[in-house]
Amino acid sequence: MGLFDHDRYVELTMHFRCNLLCEHCMIEGTMDRLEPESMDRFRELLEYNRVNRVRDGLILTGSEITLRRDLPDLARVARQNGFEHVRIQTHGMRLADPEYCRELVDAGIDEYFVSVTAADAETHDAIPKCRARSRRPYEVSRTSRHSKG
Ligand code: SF4
User: Fold this and answer.
1) Separation of 48 CA from ligand 1 center, angstroms?
2) Cα 129 to Cα 117: distance, rounded to the nearest angstrom
């Protein structure tokens, strides 16, 4: 068995906007037309899982879920309704802000799936459309490595 039992997770796309323009993005150009799940659907899922306990983990994703200002609130209410884990999928730019990270952790987000374009900042910058963009995900990676222990 892997680290995560994916059958025990449910994923909701709660946001369809992104502040990057990755060359390889599969949904760039369609984000304006895609509809995220509604808050009614979100509450419905939480209530169903609170009663039936079919999932342990909730994955909140989007295009870029950290652009939702109420992300901590979504996580908090998911934990209050019985989800043992809340995971986000993110490009990681906002995770360079320690205060924001603390807010997410305090809200109950305990798993972070961070998507980066390349293995290091130099390779990232070698991709023409990425060069102008932030290196913050790589800075986050360095910061978290250095702050361990
Ligand atoms: S970070 Fe993800 S969603 Fe945003 S443009 Fe890049 S691939 Fe697309």
Assistant:
1) 31
2) 11
Residue 1 is assigned to a structural domain of this protein: no
Nearest CA residue ID for atom 3, ligand 1: 63
Query: Using a 6 Å cutoff on CB, does residue 34 contact ligand 1?
Result: no
Any atom of ligand 1 within 6 Å of the Cβ of 101? no
Residue 108: CB partners within 8 Å, gap ≥ 6?
75, 76, 78, 79, 86
From first to last of its 149 residues, the chain has per-residue pLDDT tens of 456 678 899 999 999 999 887 878 888 788 888 899 999 999 999 999 999 999 999 999 999 999 999 999 999 999 999 999 999 999 888 998 999 999 999 999 999 999 887 888 788 777 766 655 555 555 555 544 444 33
Domain that holds residue 43: 6-147
Residue 114 maps to a domain: yes
CATH code for the domain of 133: 3.20.20.70
State how far the Cα of 61 lies from the Cα of 58, in Å rounded to an integer.
10
Number of domains in the chain: 1
Q: What is the pTM of this model?
A: 0.84
Residue 77 within a domain: yes
- List CB contacts of 43: < 8 A, sequence separation 6 or more: none
Is 131 inside any structural domain? yes
Q: Is residue 90 within 6 Å of ligand 1 at its C-beta?
A: no
